[in-house]
Amino acid sequence: MIKNSELFEITKIEVQKKNKNRVSVFISDEFAFGVDQDILIAFGLYKGVKLTQEQIDDIRLADNKKCAKDRALRFLSYRDRSEKEIHDKLVTLGYDEKVVAWVITELQRLMFVDDRRFAVAFAKNKMLSRPCGEFMLRSELKRKGIHDDLIDMAIDEVFSQKDQANIALELAEKKILQKRDCTDKLKLKKQINDLLLRRGFSYDIVRYVLENVEL
User: Which pick of 52, 117, 177, 215 has the fewest CB atoms within 10 Å?
Assistant: First the structure.
């Protein structure tokens, strides 16, 4: 059993062939661990340095955190993400909960992650790309891990710009244009009814639209 006081001397450091940003650290001429170049510099690692097992564990943890943070930043580079999306992605990649929690805290500090901002942006984009009612929007935000108070805030903001009845009415009118050759008004009404319910509008709003839309 290795004692905590035992020292391990670095005998070689090599840049990894598949990733020039990482190096392989050798102890007693055997591969011990790999680290990012930034971690190498931060811990002052070079040939001849002697480390305790505790120091090695700290180095590995720091490297793991940096790798997880870099993966999260790449994930964010495509579009904004919720905390839950980042959490789930990193867990899927094999990072433990403590490392994932640290990454999310770091991203919040850097303002790269903000569920309030995400909720509003997601809701606005949804209204532009695929307009829907409150039920659907609320459900989708919940799946993103957004808390109820932020969901309420986002919903209030998007529907203050255009209320749900008008959005539903526009969807109905678009459906009528698509089905302008349809002579069966009852069938068309059912199609509009089904469309609006699928999009998450309430029965009251659907009834209002069916009573006011011109077929």
Answer: 177
Please tell me the predicted confidence (pLDDT) of residue 161. Answer: 86
Measure the CA–CA gap between 52 and 70, rounded to whole angstroms.
Answer: 27
CATH top-level class for 8-109? mainly alpha
Domain ranges of the chain: 8-109, 115-161, 164-212
Query: How long is the chain?
Result: 215
Residue linked to tokens 């999306």: 85
Half-sphere exposure of 209 (CA within 13 A, CB side): 31
User: pLDDT tier at 121 (50, 70, 90 boundaries)?
Assistant: very high
List the beta bridge partners of residue 35.
Answer: 23
112, 122, 64: which is closest to 86 by C-alpha?
112
The DSSP annotation for 129-172 comes to HS---HHHHHHHHHHTT--HHHHHHHHHHHHHHS-HHHHHHHHH
Query: Which CATH number describes the domain made up of 164-212?
Result: 1.10.10
pLDDT at 182 over 80: no
Which of 2-16, 29-43, 94-108, 167-181 is the least confident region? Answer: 2-16
